[in-house]
Amino acid sequence: MILSVLAGCGNKTASTEPKQDQNSQTNQGQSSQQGTDNSGQNTASEDDIIQKIKNSGKLVMATSADYPPYEFHDISGGKDEITGFDVDIARAIAKELGVQLEIKDMAFDGVLPALLAKKVDIAIAAFTITEERKKSVNFSEPYLDGGQQIVTYKGSGIKGKEDLKGKTIGVQLSTTGEAEAKKIEGAKLKQFDRVDAVMLDLMNKRVDAAIVGSVVADAYLKLNPDKFEKAGDKLNSEQNGIPVRKEDTKLLEVVNKVLKDLKDSGEYDKLVQKWFVDFKPVEKK
C-alpha cells in the first residue's frame, strides 16, 4: 500500500522565476510613476504584508501536499484534509498573527513562483536551504535537519549509489533529490511531479531506485517494510527553512519568533515526536 496522499514536496529545488499577473504589473507601473524617492515606499511595503494578512483574516500558504510527514492529504477521517509537520508550523504562525490558515496545494515546482508572484503570503514545503534559492528569497532560521536517501524495492540488490550505474532512478522534479541523482554517473533519471508517483513506480518496479528526503523515506518504509528498503547512508546533509520574499522582512521576523517560541516552550519537541516518531501512515483505501 502507498500512503494516503491524493495529490502530489521535498527537500526540493524549484525554479524561482515568478510569472507576473496583471495586478503585479499594474502595481509596478504605479510605483514607477509616484516619484523617485522610494525609501518611504520600501518601509511601507515591509509593514504592509503583516497588515494585509491581518486585514484579510488569513495567512495564505503555498505547499505541495505529497510529502509525508511534512505535508500530505489525510483521508482517514472520511474527508480530505491537508496535514503534517509543516502544516502545524504554519498554524502556529497564523495563530501568532491572529488569523486563520488557508492552504493552496500545487505542484512543488510552482510553490516558489507563486510566492514570488505574490499569489500567496508564505511558502512552507520542506524547502532545503540552498545558496541558489537565497538569491531569490530569504530563509527563516533552520527548523529541521535532513538529507537525501536512496530507497529501493526489496530484493533489488542495490546497496548504495555505487550500484546505480545503468539503473533508473525515480525523482521528484526540482528537488535536491533530483540534483543528487544527476551526480550519479551512468544512471538514468525518471522524473515525476509528485513524490507519491515516484514511490508507486518503485513499488511496481518500474524504476530501480528512488532518491527522496530521509524523513519521507522513513515514512514510506514504516508503512511498507515488506516493499521498500534503504540503500546505504544518506547522500548528504540538509537543513529545512521557510522562504519569504526579500521585501517581507517583518514577516520573516514573525516566522523566526514563532520557531523560537515553539522550541523554547517545548512544543517543537512535541511536534517532532508526533510527526517523525509516532507518525503512522494510513493505507490508501
UniProtKB/TrEMBL annotation:
GO terms for cellular component: cell envelope; membrane. Keywords: Signal. The keyword Cell membrane does not apply. InterPro entries: Iontro_rcpt_C (IPR001320), SBP_3_CS (IPR018313), Solute-binding_3/MltF_N (IPR001638). It comes from the Bacteria. Gene3D superfamilies: Periplasmic binding protein-like II. CDD domains: PBP2_Arg_Lys_His (cd13624). It is found in: Cell envelope. One of its GO terms (molecular function) is ligand-gated monoatomic ion channel activity. Residues 58-278 form the Solute-binding protein family 3/N-terminal domain. Residues 58-278 form the Ionotropic glutamate receptor C-terminal domain. Residues 21-42 have a biased composition (Low complexity). Residues 1-44 are annotated as: Disordered. Its main location: other. Belongs to the bacterial solute-binding protein 3 family. This is Basic amino acid ABC transporter substrate-binding protein. It comes from Biomaibacter acetigenes.
